[in-house]
Amino acid sequence: MSAPPLIKPSKASTTSLSRHLLDRRLTLAISVFVSAVFALPSAQAASCKLPKSYYKNVSCTSSRGHFLAVKDFGAPVAIINNKGKRVVDLTRYQQVDGNKISEGLLPVLRNSRVGYLNMQGREVVPTMYDMIKEGKSWARPVSEGRIVVKRNGSYGVINTSNQTIVPFSSAINRIDDYKGGIAQIHKNQASSWVDRSGNPTSDPNTVNEQALQTPYDQATTAKLRPFTTLQPHQQDGRWGFVDDNEVTMITYSFDEVRGFSEGLAAVRIEDQWGFVNLGGELVIPFRFDQKGVQADDNYKGAAAFIFKEGKAWVGNLKNGRKLCINKEGDHVSCD
User: Fold this and answer.
1) How many whole angstroms separate alpha carbon 96 and alpha carbon 37?
2) Are 164 and 155 in contact (CB under 8 A)?
3) Fewest CB within 10 angstroms: 48, 115, 156, 298, which?
4) CATH code, residues 226-333
5) C-alpha–C-alpha distance, residues 326 and 307, integer Å
């Protein structure tokens, strides 16, 4: 579990600050438990405003206008709308993942089986699939109308009507989510690709080298190659990221951004910084204060909120020592 938000230094000593941080951890223990699994993967988390309601514990979800209400110990209660009214009853489920509402469907868990619920409360995919244990996750979000699921220990792909698209097979080690109408299937050391109908297709990252020998102009040649990283780009006063061909890959949602370093980029909304990955997911929440660092200083030659050797400088103690985080968002020593 990530450390609580960075506390601004006071006149207390470093020891007092550490004791204060510990007190904060104890005070926030329940709320961290409740909210950690429901954090948003996008900038919406920072701009989301919770509605007034009689529910005690409410958090934002990845679906604008929908909010998750849970009990003190984290059991789901309801999806509520921006007026604080219940729209979906969740009391029959063990867990739900508000972080992964996608294309109008919410992953739910009942009797340790995974299914998907629409925002009208109907189980469009019955709770019949295995939990997918990938990191802290137990289910995949809907991606382009397709869902990667497991049944009897084997991976497969279904559509949102629960029809099998890619047959379940014990030979499959992993299936990536669909992107651009294509999904990658991993079998031991081999990989293959399938389209939205489950039919084999070619590797989308393969470049026809013979075609590259044809005298195309530079722009045409660039389009044949996949991007290697993303670059900051500003539009209408907001910041996002584009690929090598200047195609928008992460929307213009931020007040300020840093370039990608070691696979992560710092992004700011109002006075708070967080970090996104190349997929545009908010992997370290917005909780680092803009005023917590000195703009003219650096850490090992890197400015604030830029990763270097697995660490990013995010704040200062009064004694001059820097505070850093690792790529999981945990506070670590900068030295």
Assistant:
1) 9
2) no
3) 298
4) 2.40.128
5) 8
